[in-house]
């Protein structure tokens, strides 16, 4: 991609000139999506703007503590107001996604809006549905990219505590609290700067990772004990959870977060999949170790995408048929996707 500094004049002019700036994250927002949105929100407020925020759907409970999260308008809860927000904006900044489908129900309004549109993202293969696409897949999180952008855009210190907290949240959630290999020395230098602002890192880690219900822990037990299948010949493990399973354990939004990573801790498993039954389809999460490209697997077979080692998709059928289809395409394509190393 172009050097970030090449965008700085254009971005800073757009931020200055625009009256109504709308920040939008992707559907089913994760910590990086909300963190990116809030980092920009707090920055723009600090330079005297009045930004608004929109999410296509609900925010998971484990992110609701974030400063400003209560100000994010939820499209599916308040469609009329959200449509008005989109219509009156003159600049729309979309963060942490690069495909228009991830706008959910807000897609039509955003795509037909006359506002200038910017994408800031770190996923591979962006679809260019914006005037400016700032895309850097080498970043571990979109908030890392936003930090680097603000370094070149801001003309005075921008790292307030709320901005730092939001950037930190994106970095720790997208790196699995520094477990995945996606972070670099540069990321850690940024984290050092973030900690200098006095953010309470232990409290943030607790709020994100040590704040689950007893029932969520027991659901994890069910998932590992009774719902996990290992396919040793394909170095693959998959877990499925039905709506009945979720209901039996008083499931709340976000409870299955992280389940898909667990089978990767098994020796020999390089590809892990989680199937979760939704109302009209099965939502699927993919994770891998090494070079197995789950983003390609997700886009080829499950209308999805994402990163090399963390992706998602969906399949419009029941659980049994979805798993049968998965096993079939896995068996016939495993060799093509598996590049040891
Ligand atoms: P998760 O498994 O945590 O829901 O998603 C992991 C990553 O996969 C996300 O950060 C996102 O990049 C990508 N992802 C998840 N679901 C979808 C989807 O339905 N479509 C696309 N294009 N990407 C997805
Ligand atoms: Mn991200």
Task: Report on this structure.
The chain has about 350 residues and is an alpha/beta fold. The chain folds into 2 domains: about 5-210, inorganic pyrophosphatase (n-terminal core) (Alpha-Beta Complex); about 215-335, Roll (Diaminopimelate Epimerase, Chain A, domain 1). It has helices spanning about 5-15, 30-45, 80-90, 105-110, 140-155, 160-175, 185-195, 200-210, 215-225, 245-250, 295-300, 320-335, and strands spanning about 20-25, 50-55, 70-75, 90-95, 115-120, 130-135, 230, 235-240, 270-275, 280-290, 305, 310-315. The protein has a 6-stranded parallel β-sheet, sandwiched between helices. A hairpin with a 3-residue loop joins strand 11 and strand 12 (about 310-315). Helix 2 runs antiparallel to helix 6 and helix 5 (about 140-155) runs antiparallel to helix 6 (about 160-175). The radius of gyration is 20 Å and the shape is globular.
Task: Offer a concise description of the structure.
The chain is of the alpha/beta class.
Helix/strand layout:
Elements: H1 5-17, E1 21-24, H2 31-46, E2 52-55, E3 72-74, H3 79-88, E4 91-95, H4 107-112, E5 116-121, E6 132-135, H5 142-153, H6 161-174, H7 185-196, H8 201-209, H9 214-226, E7 228-231, E8 236-241, H10 243-248, E9 271-277, E10 282-288, H11 294-301, E11 305-306, E12 310-315, H12 319-337
Parallel strand pairs: 1-2, 1-4, 2-3, 4-5, 5-6, 8-9
Antiparallel strand pairs: 7-8, 9-10, 10-12, 11-12
Helix pairs in contact: 1-5, 2-6, 5-6, 6-7, 6-8
Bound molecules: guanosine-5'-monophosphate and manganese (II) ion.
